[in-house]
Design goal:
37% of the residues lie in helices and 24% in strands. It contains 15 helices and 17 strands. The strands form 4 sheets. A 9-stranded mixed beta sheet has the order 9-10-8-7-6-5-4-1-11, sandwiched between helices. The protein has a 3-stranded antiparallel beta sheet with strand order 12-13-14, with no helix packed on it. The longest helix has 17 residues. It is globular, with a radius of gyration of 21 Å.
């Protein structure tokens, strides 16, 4: 089957942070001295130039500055990046432009400048409001700085997100619910509320902290979900909650198997190449020094997503969402006949992990959300 081009987003990776957190497995590097902004911005735009062939006439649906800590950049650097991108790719009228921020380095003083540059959504990495938990996570802010950052974000942009973790070292049910109540009190339009996981190549992996028991984790999730619901937040993805109309467009595009360019150190991309009827993934050079070596290309790897892998990759993303999925869309975005997955769909329905909504649509159940890994494994 012929592939159809999905919406297009852009991810921009800013690799520097003040210090490396013990749970973080992202491509981030502790800042040493002054960030080479001018050089990095030039490399980002050169990187984008090399990927322009993948745009294929589309407008940009969303942009996301991730890291690292993107808010370490100056307002001028962010403006130069966005101006450079806009000169190369047309923006959709309702484009969402998100920038991740750390509340611990007084970067919230830049929020209005970021907004003037074009940023219209800020995501604040709070993680917890309790000093002992923040210290255990290697965070450099305190609860007052987190609250101040949220206040600045609310007055600077149309929508802001708070990142909050649960299942933290030595965290009780009361601790977790207290964190959530404080986050809700700040009235963000979006909350990313997710459980701490121990990833390889992190300090927590080599020196595991004492985490809550499974029973406590279950209670936290159940009571936290109810609290968010009562506060008017709608769960639309496993770890994402928003006020009505404030879902994150950028992350939705990932989960809906949309396309995205990835520029910057270690950035990944996923692109449908219409003329070749294939899907490719890209990865850029990871280390800032290597990335900014002008004698080398920024692109480190590019590989095809084989037909046998597309079904799993599609559902690994799509089944995180609490929305129905269409078999017609599955065929358009994967190039695979839906008849090829009917047996797997039927098994998921029989296990009550999915329910059939119409002849063309299926919906993940509450049980399917709870046992997401089991559900996705059916499509391997």
């Amino acid at each position: 089957m012929s592939l159809v081009l999905p919406p297009l987003s852009l991810y921009i990776h800013i690799p520097w942070c003040v210090q490396k957190c013990p749970y973080c497995d992202f491509n981030s590097h502790a800042q040493k001295g002054t960030i080479p902004e001018t050089e990095y911005v030039a490399n980002l735009l050169d990187d984008l130039d090399q990927d322009l062939k993948y745009v294929q006439g589309r407008k940009l649906h969303s942009i996301f500055f991730g890291g690292g800590t993107p808010s370490l950049l100056s307002e001028k650097a962010v403006a130069n990046i966005l101006n450079g991108v806009k000169q190369r790719i047309e923006f959709a009228d309702d484009i969402e432009i998100t920038l991740e921020a750390n509340p611990g380095t007084l970067e919230y003083n830049k929020f209005s400048g970021f907004a003037d540059a074009g940023v219209n959504r800020i995501s604040i990495g709070v993680q917890s409001f309790q000093l002992d938990k923040l210290k255990a996570l290697g965070r450099i802010h305190n609860d007052d700085e987190a609250k101040t950052a949220a206040s600045y974000a609310a007055s600077s942009v149309n929508t802001f997100n708070i990142d909050l973790m649960h299942g933290l070292p030595n965290q009780s049910l009361d601790d977790a619910i207290s964190d959530l109540k404080q986050a809700i009190a700040l009235n963000p339009t979006h909350l990313s509320w997710y459980q701490l996981t121990i990833e390889p190549n992190t300090l927590f992996y080599s020196q595991p902290p004492k985490l809550p028991q499974d029973e406590t984790l279950w209670d936290i999730q159940q009571q936290g979900h109810e609290l968010l619901k009562q506060a008017g937040y709608i769960q639309y993805e496993i770890s994402a909650y928003s006020k009505a109309g404030y879902q994150c467009k950028h992350n939705l595009n990932y989960w809906r198997f949309g396309d995205y360019l990835g520029i910057g150190c270690g950035a990944h991309g996923k692109i449908t190449v219409e003329q070749d009827n294939k899907i490719v993934r890209t990865e850029k050079v990871k280390h800032p020094k290597g990335y900014m070596d002008l004698t080398k290309a920024h692109l480190n790897k590019v590989w095809d997503v084989e037909l046998d892998d597309r079904t799993f990759e599609y559902f690994m993303n799509k089944l995180r969402l609490k929305e129905a999925f269409s078999l017609i869309e599955f065929e358009k975005y994967t190039g695979i006949e839906s008849n090829d997955i009917q047996e797997k769909l039927s098994k998921a329905v029989k296990l009550t992990l999915l329910e059939k909504v119409t002849s063309d649509q299926y919906q993940v159940t509450e049980k399917g959300i709870q046992f997401y890994n089991n559900l996705v494994d059916l499509f391997l």
